[in-house]
User: Fold this.
Amino acid sequence: MRLIVHDLCGVSENQIGERFNSDGQELRVVSDDGTIKQCVGCFSCWVKTPGQCVIRDKYNNMGELMGKADELIIISQCRYGTYSQFVRNVLDRCLPYTHPYFTKRKKEIHHKKRYTNRIRIKVYFYGDVDEAEQKTAKQLVEANVINFDGVMEFVKFFERKEEILNENSTH
Amino acid sequence: MKIALINGSPKGWDSASRHLLEILHENLLDAHAFEYTWNRPNSGKKDFEEVIKCDAIVFAFPLYIDTIPSHLLNNLVSFEEYIKNTSLSQIIRVYVIVNNGFFDAKQNHVAIDNIGHWCRRSGVIMAQGVGIGGGGMILGIEKVPSDKGPKKNIGNAMMVLAGNILEERGGEKMLILPNLPAFAYKIVAEMTWRKMAKGNGLTTKDLYRKI
Assistant:
């Protein structure tokens, strides 16, 4: 399954599908409808309802979606070398994808995996991003890849978000 | 000298960030330090007017998926706009304390750099960042004196940070490990998760549940 998390306003799932799903793979699109609630760090998704976020909104299945994904495509405005508020929020809500126990990865301590899949991660940043912010954003995605025990595909930067939808590439 | 101490943990009072700011506050001597809690996406707005009158701002927050928690990021975006629309009468220096639940403090470096970029965009000075590993145990050892045992390194770092704030100077990024071996931290942390799960009527096996 291809999971797309994006913060593009006024872009329909069909438009996203046309751009990113020419091979017809199963697609799940996570968009901002203004109702997402923040992760409050309660850890219920680890010790009360393992694997499941207890917050009542339509974004409480992110752990499950990540567990079923082969590929994660993130489209986000770049803010200070990190993601936009919405994309950050979605990623915070991915905590149930991980297990509370620790393991070592790349000589660093991280959380164990709850699922066995290895997600290929592609990130499209857009906006006014200077060189220093680009460097930090790349480091952030690399850290996310290690954290989720995924596979880094690429990190790309665009000045305007429209360029991402019009980019001439397979994905 | 006026200092704003901003707790950016979503847990508010019941957080390691609050306790780290308390340790820092103890070292700030007679300076006027004011405490704020920005634990929701817009909770900072009511404080912007007061905070920009300070000479130093200290943000303390937990690392969330390798960077700034989303609600704090939302506050920072609004605060950047507010600062840009205000003529500052003084130089503002920003200090940041990031703690993570992992053991290695270096994993906080991206979040510290994120705050540095926010400072540049907002027209304030990024003065110093402190990354603290083993954040999961900080509240559990709240009663331990800051200069002793597992808190010794944290206590020392907060003393150095307070000195830099009072002297109105910057400093190198500090990455602080808990004063105990990594294996001990791992054992205690995992035991805590099992205990919490048991309290919720779950077994250790249940922790591995898939949806």
Remarks:
- Chain B touches chain A through 49 residues (CB under 8 Å).
- The two ends of chain B are 53 Å apart (CA to CA).
- DSSP finds six helices and six strands in chain B.
- The longest helix of chain B spans residues 182-199.
